[in-house]
Amino acid sequence: GKKAFSSHVIDCTFPAGSGPDGMIQALERICDEAADAIQGSIGSSGAQAVILSDRLTGPDRMALPSLIAVGAVHQHLLRTKQRPKAAIFAEAGDCKEVHDYATIFGYGCDGVCPYMAYEALCKMNHDGIIEAKAKASMTDEEVMTNYRKAVAKGLL
């Protein structure tokens, strides 16, 4: 049968208060983890995608900026000749505007899930802000579809 597509999620947060050293250690960790996941050291077979996620951000965890995380992993995988073997995706709370997408794609990202933008849009929709501006009622799915279309138009 068909081989399943495998992915590996990498936590792109680091302990709050650990300063620049904590950030550097986190960058080294995520680069090593991405290479290991693609090589197959993590799990049974090599991952065809690595997902760099900042979802664990909170009072005790700082997020690496997505551009830094993506750029570091992309360059590391190029150096180790593993970049053609896997896609890099970002689950990024800091991607909101067209420029954010343009730069993250330029840094080597293949796709983005802008979960914080989606959450903010859904909250605005529930609070009636979008309906008041658009003069029309929309479902959350319609709002997010419109957002994706607007970002795509901005990029192209």
TrEMBL record:
Transmembrane segments: none annotated. GO terms for molecular function: glutamate synthase activity. Residues 3-156 form the Glutamate synthase central-N domain. Pfam families: Glu_syn_central. This is Glutamate synthase central-N domain-containing protein. It comes from Rhizochromulina marina.
